[in-house]
Design a protein that fits this description.
The complex is a heterodimer of chains A (349) and B (263). Chain A has 349 residues and is mainly α. Helix content of chain A is 70%, strand content 5%. In chain B, a hairpin with a 2-residue loop joins strand 1 and strand 2. Chain B starts with 8 loop residues before the first strand and ends in a 7-residue tail after the last helix. The chains are: A mainly alpha (349), B alpha/beta (263). The structure holds adenosine-5'-triphosphate and magnesium ion.
């Protein structure tokens, strides 16, 4: 039965623009979808390799800026000697370059910090996000600094019979985001469900044990960082071409926090977790904004998250999965989990 | 077993020392293990046995001396590189992934045996599936070997302690070592489990695997080892067949403490 669940949800998501005519809701859904892609990418690192990227928004922002600049063009002088002029390219090229550049930055960050990981990785990613923000703010010639890059062009697709169509239309854009989200989901699902994913989980659970059986931990951490950063970059690109204007505020720390909240409440280390958490925290603002000021909204999210984490420490998806399984299998067997936790705690020595 | 002289040298430590700050945990230790041999490494608590394992498998660095495996210098190699050379150890404490099932533990251990590449995985190419199928078959083989196939779908952390030790051995065996280093594998096992485990060791060695065994259960070590090396305060104080070592007064003294050497 659960085999058909993905197909069921796919049909729901595919038909949304057919029954959801409210443009505002569609807009929220698009932004939410973009953040879900970013949250999925964060989850690959946090949930499977166990590394917290506290500057994950940097990869998102790099994707956004690289994609915007590729499609808007620029004219800069490097070190006062070389003049680099770039003529505008189509937005799709921006998406590819933004994704690749973010992935490359993920590679560098991974190389740099996984030598000494854990807390070190958190600090390196956090500082990296601040550095990228400062670059975006101060390299005015390239990024327009606080004046923002305006008029970021939309994606265009060649449709048979129609020629090239710009994706101004929200329904079209929704499908583009959905398409990238599905690709990201499949990519992550394949990695995680393979021996690569087992290696990642092994190093998260017990690094010494993982290396003792010959797993090259650094390799899988870097792979995780590259894929994660690239997907965040793709989400950033989608964001830039959707909102059409990009400024250094895109690097705001709150965005990283939002992604982490989505992953943790939904259930880190599960495939559906970031989607569930993303939908909740994507639509919560809509639910509360009619009666709460922005500051109060943040407090509501905080309280909401604390409640979820308190009641369901593993997150929503694992809790629901367990709940369903307890229904399906065997009559009441309360001693099982208790004994299990006993055995694990005893083994700590 | 007598034919040691005809065998090839597998592991050798040459004048190796390890320091932890001021503490000399391993002091100028030299010993060898031949291919196919089962060697017991014993000594009182804190003697440096686990440190010796950490040293051989690349978890701590030698302050001085050489470590060779089949002629390859191990000094400076990282743990996963040493595992790739065929030297795989278990841990005295946690040697399983407790939140994964017993079957998944075996699969994780089989990591290096997978043949699929990154692209096979991402694009779901046929080789991904055949490789995964092979790994699953091998995982079942290993679980049957150690007698855990009935436990395959249970979380490793929920098993009784003795069986968790077996999972640890299965995990190590899955990495297909040519030499296995076991750190107190029967601690936490009851008498009948221990007897079964001794049979398992015989079965493993029958496949030609070399074994270095740290264990406090004297009946067990003396029962399965061809040769025993005794460490005390980081130094080798005796070496020889179980019968000889057991009668060595220095060994008896090390175990019973000062003033009890009359035994
Ligand atoms: N990482 C470390 N840092 C500092 N000291 C250490 C470290 N590892 C071990 N030691 C010390 O080195 C000495 C040898 O310890 P080791 O764990 O090798 O003993 P052992 O023979 O395995 O003992 P046991 O039988 O209790 O397992 C001990 O004094 C221990 O405290
Ligand atoms: Mg020890």
């Amino acid at each position: 039965m659960s085999r058909y669940a993905p197909i069921f949800w796919l049909v729901i998501f595919l038909t949304v623009p057919l029954w959801l005519k409210d443009q505002y809701f569609l807009h929220v859904l698009i932004i939410t979808g973009i953040f879900i892609i970013a949250a999925m990418s964060l989850n690959l690192l946090l949930g499977f390799t166990g590394q917290l990227s506290l500057g994950h928004i940097a990869f998102f922002g790099i994707g956004a800026y690289a994609s915007s600049l590729t499609s808007v063009g620029f004219d800069v002088e490097l070190f006062g000697v070389v003049r680099v002029v770039h003529k505008p390219w189509p937005a799709v090229a921006g998406l590819i370059i933004g994704t690749a550049l973010a992935g490359f930055c993920g590679f560098l960050i991974g190389k740099l910090s996984f030598k000494v990981r854990g807390a070190y990785f958190i600090i390196v990613t956090l500082s990296f996000a601040e550095v990228t923000r400062l670059v975006a703010l101060n390299w005015v010639e390239l990024t327009q600094g606080p004046m923002a890059i305006n008029n970021v062009p939309p994606f265009t697709v060649g449709l048979p019979g129609l020629g090239y169509v710009a994706l101004w239309n929200k329904a079209y854009y929704y499908y583009l985001v959905l398409f990238i989200a599905i690709l990201a989901y499949i990519l992550i699902a394949r990695l995680v469900g393979s021996r690569i994913g087992r290696a990642m989980v092994a190093l998260k659970e017990n690094e010494s044990l993982a290396v003792s059986i010959g797993i090259d931990v650094t390799r899988y951490l870097i792979l995780g960082a590259v894929v994660s950063a690239a997907l965040a970059g793709a989400a950033g690109s989608l964001y830039a071409h959707y909102v059409k204007i990009i400024d250094p505020d895109v690097f705001h720390f709150m965005y990283t926090v939002t992604m982490i909240i989505m992953v943790i409440t939904g259930g880190k280390g599960t495939l559906a977790g970031p989607i569930v958490g993303g939908l909740i925290f994507g639509f919560l603002p809509v639910a509360v904004r009619s009666f709460a000021s922005p500051e109060v909204q943040w407090m509501i999210y905080g309280v909401f998250m604390i409640i979820i984490v308190f009641v369901l420490p593993q997150g929503i998806v694992p809790a629901v999965t367990q709940w369903i399984e307890s229904f399906r299998s065997r009559p009441p067997n309360d001693t099982g989990p208790a004994l299990a936790s006993l055995a694990t705690s005893r083994k700590e020595d | 077993m007598g034919q040691a002289s005809t065998n090839k040298q597998a592991l050798s430590l040459e004048h190796v020392s390890v320091n932890f700050g001021g503490l000399r945990a391993i002091a100028d230790v030299s010993f060898e293990v031949q291919d196919g041999e089962v060697v017991g490494l014993i000594g009182p608590n804190g003697a440096g046995k686990t440190t010796a394992f950490n040293l051989i498998t690349g978890f701590v660095r030698a302050f001085a001396g050489n470590i060779l495996y089949h002629g390859t210098q191990l000094n400076g190699l990282r743990p996963h590189e040493i595992a790739a050379l065929g030297l795989v150890r278990t841990f005295q404490r946690t040697s399983v992934f407790p939140n994964n099932t017993v079957f998944e533990n075996a699969l994780i251990g089989l990591h290096r045996r997978g043949r699929s590449t990154l692209w096979d995985t991402i694009l779901a190419l046929p080789r991904e599936r055949t490789s995964e199928k092979e790994l699953a078959d091998e995982a079942w083989d290993i679980l049957r070997t150690v007698g855990l196939d009935m436990r395959a779908s249970e979380p490793a952390g929920s098993l009784p302690y003795g069986e968790q030790r077996l999972v640890g051995v299965a995990l190590a065996l899955a990495a297909k070592p040519s030499m296995l280093l076991l750190d107190e594998p029967v601690s936490g096992m009851n008498a009948s489990e221990t007897v079964k485990f001794m049979k398992l060791i015989e079965a493993i060695r029958a496949r030609g695997m070399t074994i270095l065994l740290v264990e406090h259960d004297m009946r067990m070590v003396m029962g399965v080892s061809d040769r025993v090396v005794v460490l005390n305060h980081g130094q080798i104080i005796a070496e020889g067949t179980p019968a000889v070592v057991q009668r060595n007064p220095e060994v008896v003294q090390a175990y019973l403490g000062r003033g009890a050497a009359r035994a």
